[in-house]
Amino acid sequence: MGDDWQLNGVSVHAENDNEKQLLKEVHTSFKAGEITLLIGRNGAGKSTLLETLAGIRSIQSGNIELGTDQLWMENGRRSRLNPEVVLKLGISMQNAESQWFASSVREEMVYSLKPYKLDSSIIEERIAEALARVGLPVELLERDPWTLSGGQQRRLSLACLLACEPDWLLLDEPTAGLDAGGIRRLCAVLEAHRAAGCGAVVATHDLDALLPLADAVAVVDGGTVRAAAKAAAIAHAASAPQALRALDALREEAALPLEQFIQRADADGAPWPAPQELAAAISIALASRDDQKSEAAGVVIAKGIVSSIDTEHNKPNTFSKEEPKEEPKEEPKEEPKEEPKEEPKDKLVEKAKTELSQLEVAKPSVLLRSNYFDPRALILVYLFLSASIFAQKTALELTVAAVSTILLLIPFRTLIWPWRRVIRAYAIMIIIFCVIAGIGIRPLSFDLDKVWPIVIRLGKLLLIMLLGLPMLKLMTPLRLQRSLEQTFGVLERLKVPIHSFAIIVTLIFRFIPLLTGEWERFAKLAHARGKAVTPLKTVPMKRLLPILIPYVRSILRLAEQMADALEARGFGYAKRKPTYSFRLRFGRADARLMSIAAAAGSFLFLIAVLF
């Protein structure tokens, strides 16, 4: 019998935004010997919860326990994963293809088993047994995982977990891409896992297949997790599966959470919510979704929904499951007496008001949008400010330039925050170089006069690097390409390949985040499958060399995919006069940005001349 999971006040923030909470004060438990389903709308936090249990997401507060062992152990200022806990669990990602990096199926499975330090004979036995349980032939062992179909990759992901024989299975959308036979095998695997006294936490939207199998259901909504009674839902699924699928379709279209259906089923046994309540909830969800396109319109819609629900609160339900009667005058008198419960409407009103307050309070800064500034303005600003920083020659001038740069970057600090480790590493490198340059051997001394030139030169490069970091987010590759084509397009008449040059610059601009993102994926796999206990987003030194070749191969695969995409879109064929879907134009925001940069750069140039 395995141990139970216990989460006490667990909060998780977004990786690059400490103000955005993905999980909020979660207090819940998952019992061994049970299958728990995680349900909820897209983006509710189901995958985040699974990754948090697997230790591949750090927590900001609270603690996670498996039995009597803590998932995170204190190690000075940093917390480190408990190796005894991570070896007892296995996680399957939502996208199966994101887990592969080796050249064959065999190597993928061997990598998953390596942390358990098993003999080669036992490894071969487990691999063969795991493939048989998921329905994959052994002939696939020498195939490249990327060449498998989506369903085969999903089965391989499960086989990698079963070969490790973990106490806990953490599965994210395990039925995605599976045919009917694959789903039956998955259910058989889960039943056998439960019969062995082990547990599973499964995030899914496929309620028809997995809901009858579950022992418990947890609803994830907006980063909160709470238990839900599934007895009524299972009974309804058995009696009216078509109605349940229809409700799932409505919920998927409008992001309507399942818990409203469950609450109503528990309250009065009705399989469907009242049509008026369902329509109001769908309107609220749609208004919230449309607010991403137009915030002002969303606020108006939300206010209208709140007022309409408040207005209809005391009115009878005009939609009825029964056929309409010939005398409608009696309905307003009878319906309030027969249905005195108004709790669902009260909850809808409160939810609408809560979403309305979120719409009015959470207003992201327009300065951080990738389509707010013209890329040409950003490039001109960067070049002018970089030149003004290069003009500084003394420590005092560098200090003034540093203060000016920091003041200019304050509005864009959230875009620089993800690069804090790179900035810190560069600052440490400057300190090391300064110490080496200042030390004298005969006699033993430290000369500051030798240090200042290094500080000034490397410090100017650091400031210029800081200015360039926000540009990776303030413009998209497409807008950068369009700016180059619009600015230098006239040179095409002189046979200058501006179009090809713009594509090359765009690909370089696009490939930089791909390199870092791919390395973060490898670091994530080192923790999820390799059971590394080093800080997240890092790869242990002993596993660094074995993944270098797979990393290069993965980058080449990305480049090949990009080349196929370019060819499919017509790049490289006979050139014709291009037709642009949009054209860039300088706006007021660009004028203000350039004016501020011109003032700051001129001030720095003046300081350099005077001093």
Itemize the secondary structure elements and their pairings.
Layout (H helix, E strand, L loop, with lengths): L4 E10 L2 E14 L4 E5 L6 H9 L6 E6 L2 E2 L1 E4 L2 E4 L1 H4 L2 E4 L12 H9 L6 H15 L15 H15 L3 E5 L7 H16 L3 E5 L3 H4 L5 E6 L2 E5 L2 H9 L1 H14 L4 H10 L6 H16 L4 H18 L18 H8 L4 H19 L13 H16 L4 H15 L3 H4 L3 H19 E2 L4 E2 L1 H21 L2 H4 L2 H12 L9 H31 L15 H25 L19 H23 L1
Parallel strand pairs: 3-10, 3-11, 8-9, 9-10
Antiparallel strand pairs: 1-2, 1-4, 4-5, 6-7, 11-12, 13-14
Helix pairs in contact: 3-5, 4-5, 8-9, 11-12, 11-14, 12-14, 15-19, 15-24, 16-19, 16-24, 18-19, 21-22, 22-23
Concise synopsis of the structure shown:
The chain is α/β, with parallel strands linked by helices and 611 residues long. The protein is 55% helix and 12% strand.
